[in-house]
Amino acid sequence: MEILRATTMGFCMGVRLAMQAMEELIKSDTPRPIHTYGPLIHNQRVLDGLAERGVGRIDRVDEASKGTVVLRTHGVRPQEKQALIDAGVRVVDLTCPRVVTSQKAVASAVEKGFQVILVGDRNHGEIIALEGFAPGCEIIGTTEEAERVVMKGPAHVVGQTTLLRDDFLAISLILKKRNPLAQTALTLCPATVQRQNALLELSRAVEALLVIGGRNSANTGKLYQQALHTGIPAWHIEGAADLGADVFGFSRVGITAGASTPDWIVEEVEAALRRGGRNV
Ligand code: SF4
User: Fold this and answer.
1) Which of 47, 74, 136, 204 has the greatest count of CB atoms below 10 A from its CB?
2) Residue nearest atom 7 in ligand 1 by C-alpha distance
3) What pTM, to 2 d.p., does this model score?
4) Is the pLDDT of residue 214 over 80?
């Protein structure tokens, strides 16, 4: 079987930096216990591996009493970060640099007296954290909401980093038409669209596709949906153990992976494909 990888796949910059920092932290003499504040990434096998090495997880400030607490790439509300510091734990902030740029854009807009409008999923960790920099700001996710949102003078529009550019532009256009004083911040991250474009290109060169990543990873789920639309057989797997017999009937198989899938899981899948599925 010939196995082709997508030209862009796997860990994005923010997740790679966070995982490297976590490795260094585990080896360091940072105060114990180490906890992550929420799941570090959306990949259960990686989280299980961290748990085996003594890294626990908390989800609320009142669970932090000692040791080290690691903030994940989506960031947290500044009030929460301060509460963790006040609780006496060492806080290690692994917020993605791109998300930090968005947080700074929101904080600066508030300082200048702008109305802040966030565009994204109000239930997503990144938007929840951003709202903390502009408490009470407007949060919208659709063009319909852009038509309805109450606008009050100069406004600053900031999008969730993982939004698709076209979706953000469509919403921004409506806001700017309604309010010429509205400004937009360019904070979108190309990681999602780069993985989607690479998958499309790969699909033209193979007979079947494997999308590797956690079942609870939103970006892996989106990649899989896109794979289904290519018209060739596609599977979403978490690792080699999920490989079905059908895939071994193809002679050219393409693989891609979500932004929270580590290289070692991709290599495990590739090795199993090369072995013809034996000892998976
Ligand atoms: S998808 Fe982009 S913004 Fe999100 S963690 Fe990765 S690099 Fe950062």
Assistant:
1) 74
2) 14
3) 0.91
4) yes
